[in-house]
Amino acid sequence: MAEGAGITRYLNESLRISKALQTFLEARHACEVQYATALAEACYTLKGTVESKVETEGKLQNSLLKQAVMDLIKGTGKIADARYGFAGTMKKNVLDHFSSVILELQTTRDAKIAEMEHLQDPIIESFENYKKAKTLNDAVKETEKEAKDSYSKAQQEQKKKDLEKLSQKATVLAQKVAQTTQAVTDSLLEHDTTRNTYLKETLPNFQKSLVDWAYLRTKTIKYMLLELKSLEQVAVDKALEANNVGKDSAMSIDVQRIVDQFVDTVISKDIEIRKTSATSIRDLKTSTKAGKLYVKRNDSPLSPWSIQYSVLKNNRLYMFENAESEQPKEVILLAKKQEGAHTWNPEKQKKPSASDRVSSDFAIVHPAHRSLFQKDNCFQLLFHANASAASFPLEAPSQETTEVSMESSMFYQEEDDRNIRQSLSMRRGVDSTGERPLDRRYYFMPVDKEASNMWLSAFSQNGAKNCWCGKCLSNQPSKLNLKLWILDGTALGMERGSNDSFGVIVKFGGLKMSRTAFKQGPNPVWNEEFLFEGVTSCTSSIRLAVNSGLNLDNGDSELGTVSFSMSTMALERRTENVVCGSCLRIAMV
């Protein structure tokens, strides 16, 4: 019995392992098939790209334009070589050769300036000596005069003793006066001699040295100019020789043919746009759908709606001022192979801003939830942004100008959407770039409220898609329904210390689906229920954005976001408590 039980367990374990192995092999086979399909598509695309590249390169290699350009490049290179040679020769023959002479001239000039400042020092010194001797002589003469006056007074008073002393003193002073007078005479003679030497020898010699320095300076400059002139003549000859290179091939280019090709490949787009802008309602008799629509061009619930007569035909939406208009106010291309969807405005307007640019692979049309604008029967038209896209806003054509302004812009994927795209590709096998940032959106509401479904169907017939991947069929709606309760929030905006009103916006990827009412205070209680029917299979994420205020376009009013991946979400009721500085409580089915 024990052996039989052991054999049974062994067989059961072997069967389980075999089933697991079979499941693994089936999954592996499915992955290999998917990989092989993707590889085949990539090879087919690469083959077409390579063939186009080879054909283009062949035409370019054999074109006269390329030969002329190459010749001109060679000529430009020779001109550059001539300029570089001129600079090198000038440095070698002029700058380096005369640098020592220039330095010596500068040193001599500085020495002459210093010498000139001290040139009259001997004259000044001799004159100072003369002044000192003269001052001393004057003082001695004054003393002698005082002694003579004292001697005369003593004679008058007949003082014999004083007369002898004063006589001796007067004698000594007379001798001293004679000595100082001789010193004054000698110093004056020395001063005269020094001045004569300065005027006859020192000053002429200095002036001669200045003349010699100026002559050497002029001679050096003359030699440098001669060298530069000869070098420049050589450079001019080489430049003329280089300019002649490529002239023959350049003259053989058929400029008119090149211009015609440019017109065919580039300006033809302008012709197409202008033909579209010149379309009148009479030209659109066999349209898919026509009628009046309320139109809104942004998300703000405060912006007005405008009524425009709209016509759908040939993957284009024409919007007229009224049913009698001769020219559309705006034309939107809903889908175009290998090109983006564009919007054109043929009316004269100011220079378009970044918000006027519309570019995508195709347009998406989707019903708009009543909570967005408190209106029924609304639907929205959205465009995906390419990595690099361009739009063509036009002015009304006139006889004076036919210019087309073209602007380009860059769009980047949001960082927090990367995981969402990865989970999307893992869940459904869809390209991970299926959800991209939006460039622009329109909101429509039929004047005839019963015609909303007819308009949605007409948009789909003219190239608009109803999902992110563009592969889900509108006649095969998804059976996935989602019910969402947004209950309440706690401590919202407390860090700012303000008592704002708060609301929650529900997004599927970049598509705004619904929003709650705005409640006052940091602890709002919404308790609102939203039912989303027919959720497309490629919808990868749900995103809840908490906003303060009513301006839904203002990014600064967004406090934070919470994202849920559909691939990790079980299909039963679940409650999420999300904490990111505050708390938001929700429930889903």
TrEMBL record:
Gene3D superfamilies: Arfaptin homology (AH) domain/BAR domain, C2 domain, Pleckstrin-homology domain (PH domain)/Phosphotyrosine-binding domain (PTB)
Name of this protein: C2 domain-containing protein
Organism taxonomic ancestry: Eukaryota, Fungi, Fungi incertae sedis, Chytridiomycota, Chytridiomycota incertae sedis
Annotated ranges, domain C2: 461-579
Positions of transmembrane segments: none
Coiled-coil segments: 137-176
Source species: Rhizoclosmatium globosum
Keywords, sorted A to Z: Coiled coil
Domain of life: Eukaryota
